[in-house]
Design goal:
Elements: E1 6-7, E2 10-11, E3 16-18, H1 28-34, E4 40-43, H2 56-65, H3 68-78, H4 85-97, E5 101-103
Length: 106
């Protein structure tokens, strides 16, 4: 940020940085839902669930149901699905359509 509450040309009254490792916390929808009440900078996880699965919510529901004894094995299975470049473009478009500032990490 160039100064408190600013990042380049963007002003963030109540900054929320949606980190790229938090697939289950910040979706493209969440980034847009928070935009009216606070400025949100959405950093898309290019290797995350939203870039691997068209219906990412199904995978997130699966993850929420895992017991400790199977969670690691099942998460590894979920992340075996390849990243789909067309989903990256789609997710960035979804974020921007909602008026949130969005980009993939450099």
């Amino acid at each position: 940020m160039t100064s408190p509450g600013r990042w380049g040309p963007y002003r963030f009254d109540l900054p929320l940085l949606a980190g790229p490792r938090w697939d289950g916390v910040v979706s493209p929808q969440t980034a847009g839902d928070n935009r009216p009440s606070s400025a949100v900078l959405a950093v898309l996880n290019l290797e995350g669930i939203f870039c691997r699965y068209e219906d990412a919510d199904t995978q997130l529901e699966r993850i929420a149901s895992f017991s400790r004894d199977i969670a690691t094995r099942e998460m590894q299975d979920i992340y075996r699905e390849p990243v789909k470049p067309e989903l990256i473009a789609q997710r960035i478009k979804e974020i921007k359509q909602q008026g949130a500032v969005g980009r993939g990490p450099r």
